[in-house]
């Protein structure tokens, strides 16, 4: 074999070995590129719009959505209007299991720098609250005009197997509207007139009138007086012409029974005497009546004679 042929064989072997090495390197890089995820992380505020009163306060959450990225650290750069707001506090959220505050700077007016990280085994993928913020509104802040709290372009996130590449692809700001404090009107309560209840009339039970029987007037109970009837000697019969007999109305006194009053209230039983001859009075009135009767008989006889 000539020297020329040997030289060509050696050159060919060297080229083949070089090609194999270059091919292996290119395949490795291609595999690494396939394992590496594209940047897909977004940052936003929750809520996206807030209304706060002058002199009041409000809270915001910084929400991260890593998409296909597995995050190990996040660096936040925020901007706000210092004429409207002041930062009260900023604390880690629940996205990382064991977050580590690498930096927290709120000393520059209108700016916040906050860096959170975790151990490689604590890297997280998905959506969650990265940090919580509290702002206070200045009492003299202009009302009615929305003011923006935003992420600066320097905000970034680092993912596992991403090297030094920033995987943040988008951010969303928050609009805060300051409302004017309405003066509180203290209602003046007019003194109310307390009605005074008049004394309640007490019903006194009145006695139910019981119909009473009017007292009966005293009734004189006629008492028959014991009187002796005088025996008048009969006149001697003179044979004369018989006159027409005139019936005599001389009553014969009879004892009168004491009347019993009936049960009708208010009525008094009045005894009715059976003769016109009074049952009281004594001997002389009775004798006078008897003699008067005899005189009437006598004059009747004389008249008819």
Describe the protein in words.
Helix content is 18%, strand content 26%. It contains two helices and twelve strands; from the N terminus they run H-E-E-E-E-E-E-E-E-E-E-E-E-H. Strand 6 and strand 7 form a beta hairpin. The chain is rod-shaped and about 240 Å long. The termini are far apart. About 19% of the residues have low confidence.
Short description:
This protein is an alpha+beta fold and 305 residues long. The chain has a domain at 41-179: Immunoglobulin-like (Sandwich).
List keywords for this structure.
single chain; 305 residues; alpha+beta; Immunoglobulin-like; seven-stranded mixed β-sheet; five-stranded mixed β-sheet; 2 helices; 12 strands; 18% helix; 26% strand
Largest sheet: 7 strands, mixed
CATH class of the domain at 41-179: Mainly Beta
According to CATH, what is the topology of the domain at 41-179? Immunoglobulin-like
Oligomer: single chain
Rg calculated over all Cα atoms: 74 Å
Helix and strand layout, with pairings?
Layout: H1 3-35, E1 41-46, E2 49-53, E3 57-65, E4 71-79, E5 85-92, E6 100-105, E7 111-117, E8 127-137, E9 147-151, E10 156-159, E11 168-171, E12 174-179, H2 283-304
Parallel strand pairs: 1-11, 2-12
Antiparallel strand pairs: 1-3, 3-8, 4-7, 4-9, 4-10, 5-8, 6-7, 9-12
